[in-house]
Write a structure and sequence with these properties.
3-stranded antiparallel sheet, alpha/beta, single chain, 2 domains, 12 strands, about 45% helix, TIM Barrel, Actin, Chain A, domain 4
Length: about 350
C-alpha cells in the first residue's frame, strides 16, 4: 500500500518544482527587460555607445526643426557615456533615449531600429533588423571627394557619377555649403553621401578642442540648413587627427589609402595614372571636386577600374559593417582607434 503521507509530500514537492520551473522561465525575462544597459545591448562597446549618442543627436535634429545655433550645440546635449547607463527603452520598432532636462525641451528621442542594425546586438533586435554581413565582390573600391561643393565642377561630377551608376561620399567644407546649398542638396538627390570636412579647412590638431568642435559644429549647421540632415562621417582636413581630436565628435573618422595627389598634379593624365597604379581591392580613394583636372580624370578612372573588375560601393558596403564612432577607417579591413 502506498504511504499517503509520502504521496502527499511528493505531490507538494512536485507542484513546487513546477511552479519554480514556470517562474524561472518567465520572471528573468521580465527582469532582464528592466535592467538592460548600453553595455549589454552593444557588447560593451564604447564605439557603439558613441554611435548611439550621435544617432540621438541626428534623430533629434530630424524630428525637430532646429536653428543653426541649436545644431551647433547638439554636441553638448547631455548623453550617457557609461556602458552601465540604462536611460532607454527598447521596443520592437525603436530605441527610445530618455533625456535629462535640456535646452531643447525634448524628453525622449526614438531612433528607429532600422538605423541600429549592426550597432545593437542581434539578440536584442527583431529578426528583420538582424545584421548580416553584406556579400560583395572581392574587388570593391569607394570614391570620396573633398573640399566642395563647387557651383560648376560638383554638378558636372555628379552627372558623370550618375552616368556610370557610381555613388560617392563628398566631404564638404561648411563655408562653401553656405554659399552653394543647392549643390549640397543635389549631391544627396543623386544618391551620394555628405561628410563633414570642417568649416574652412584648418589643421584641427593645431586648434583647441573648443575651436575644433566649433569648426565641425558650424559645418553641421550649414549642411543641416541646406539638406535637413546631419553628416554621419568626418574627414579632418589634411587627414590631420590625433586622439584628442578624433574622440571629440562621436563619429567615424574617414581616412583613405589611395591619395590621388590630384591637388599636387593638377594634371588629368597624371592623376589617372597615379590612381590606377595605387588602387587595390578595398581602397578608399581621395580626390577633390574643386579642380577641373580632377573632375576630368574621373570618367577614365571609373572606366579603367571597371574593366579591371572593380565595383564601386559606398563606405558601409566597403567596410561590410556600420562605421562606428571614434574609429579611423582607411580601407576594407583597416580601421583603428586612437
Amino acid at each position: 500500500m502506498i504511504n499517503k503521507r509520502a504521496l502527499l509530500t511528493f505531490s507538494i514537492a512536485a507542484a513546487s518544482l513546477l511552479t519554480f520551473s514556470i517562474s524561472n522561465h518567465s520572471v528573468p525575462q521580465a527582469h532582464a527587460a528592466t535592467t538592460l544597459t548600453y553595455g549589454k545591448i552593444t557588447n560593451n562597446s564604447l564605439h557603439r555607445l558613441g554611435t548611439i549618442r550621435q544617432l540621438t543627436r541626428a534623430q533629434l535634429a530630424e524630428d525637430h526643426k532646429l536653428s543653426g545655433k541649436q545644431v551647433q550645440n547638439l554636441i553638448y546635449l547631455p548623453l550617457p557615456k557609461r556602458l552601465t547607463a540604462h536611460n532607454f527603452t527598447l521596443s520592437k520598432t525603436a530605441l527610445t533615449i530618455h533625456l535629462v532636462k535640456n535646452s531643447y525641451g525634448v524628453k525622449d528621442v526614438a531612433i528607429p531600429l532600422s538605423k541600429l542594425t549592426g550597432i545593437i546586438l542581434n539578440c536584442y533586435m527583431p529578426s528583420q533588423y538582424d545584421f548580416v554581413k553584406p556579400k560583395t565582390p572581392k574587388k570593391v573600391v569607394a570614391l570620396t571627394f573633398d573640399d566642395g561643393p563647387d557651383p560648376t565642377l560638383t554638378p558636372k561630377l555628379l552627372k558623370t557619377l550618375k552616368h556610370y551608376n557610381v555613388h560617392a561620399t563628398f566631404f564638404e567644407v561648411g563655408s562653401s555649403v553656405i554659399r552653394y546649398p543647392s549643390i549640397s542638396r543635389l549631391v544627396l538627390k543623386y544618391g551620394n553621401q555628405i561628410g563633414n570636412h570642417s568649416w574652412n579647412h584648418p589643421d584641427l590638431t593645431t586648434l583647441s578642442s573648443a575651436k575644433a568642435i566649433h569648426q565641425i559644429a558650424l559645418t553641421d549647421a550649414a549642411i543641416y540648413k541646406a539638406t535637413g540632415t546631419i553628416p554621419t562621417y568626418i574627414r579632418p582636413p589634411y587627414g590631420a587627427v590625433n586622439s584628442r581630436i578624433g574622440n571629440l565628435f562621436d563619429r567615424p573618422i574617414v581616412r583613405w589609402n589611395v591619395d590621388s595627389r590630384d591637388w599636387a598634379y593638377l594634371n588629368t593624365p597624371k592623376t589617372v595614372s597615379h590612381v590606377l597604379a595605387t588602387t587595390h581591392p578595398g581602397s578608399i580613394i581621395l580626390m577633390h571636386d574643386i579642380h577641373p583636372t580632377s573632375v576630368a580624370a574621373v570618367p577614365q578612372i571609373i572606366r579603367s577600374l571597371k574593366k579591371r573588375g572593380y565595383t564601386f560601393v559606398t563606405l558601409p558596403t566597403l567596410m561590410q559593417k556600420p562605421l562606428l564612432a571614434n574609429l579611423q577607417y582607411f580601407g576594407r579591413g583597416d580601421f583603428r582607434g586612437f
